[in-house]
Amino acid sequence: QVQLVESGGGLAQAGASLTLSCAASGRRFSSYAMGWFRQAPEKEREFVAGIRWNGGSAVYAESVKGRFILSRGYAETTVFLQMNSLKPEDTAVYYCAASSNGPLSRYDYWGQGTQVTVSS
Predict the structure, then answer these.
(1) What is the structure's pLDDT at 38?
(2) Comparing C-alpha atoms, which of 65, 100, 82, 86 is closest to residue 21?
(3) 57 dihedral zone (left: phi>0; alpha: psi -120 to 50; beta)
(4) Residue 60's closest CA among 30, 100, 93, 90?
(5) Partners of 52 in the beta sheet?
(6) What is the pLDDT of residue 40?
(7) Which long-range contacts (CB under 8 A, 24 or more apart) does 22-26 make?
């Protein structure tokens, strides 16, 4: 059974940093792409960042480019989203997801989400 478990969310002040983690289990993800999405209240879920397990650079939404860094863990079971210079508009539930098609394609598996709240 595939599981994606996010952690690291919480409350932060504007300008601070938080790092989210996503632990993946239940299958081999070496050929998958891993991504982060977020959904703010009363807004649609939006893509934040994505990366392939087996190489290549991460891709980012324009709204987070230059502030967020997506990286892979060594064991191909964890991905990290380092969020710097946080803004109140980054407040959302953040979801980890896995795609068998690519970082900008349809995602097959989803985590339950972790709340990030940024105060001004």
Answers:
(1) 98
(2) 82
(3) beta
(4) 90
(5) 33
(6) 97
(7) 22/78, 22/79, 22/80, 22/81, 22/96, 22/111, 23/77, 23/78, 24/77, 24/78, 24/79, 24/96, 24/98, 25/77, 26/1, 26/2
- pLDDT value at position 101? 87
Alpha-carbon gap, residue 83 to 96, rounded angstroms: 14
Given the DSSP bridges, would you call strands 46-52 and 18-25 parallel, antiparallel or unpaired?
unpaired
Is the confidence at residue 29, as pLDDT, over 90?
no
Residue 119 is which amino acid? S
Q: Identify whether the C-beta of residue 30 lies closer than 8 Å to the C-beta of residue 19.
A: no
Report helix, strand or coil for 89: helix
Residue with tokens 């690519």, as numbered in its chain: 102
Closest by CA position to 104, among listed 61, 54, 53, 45: 61
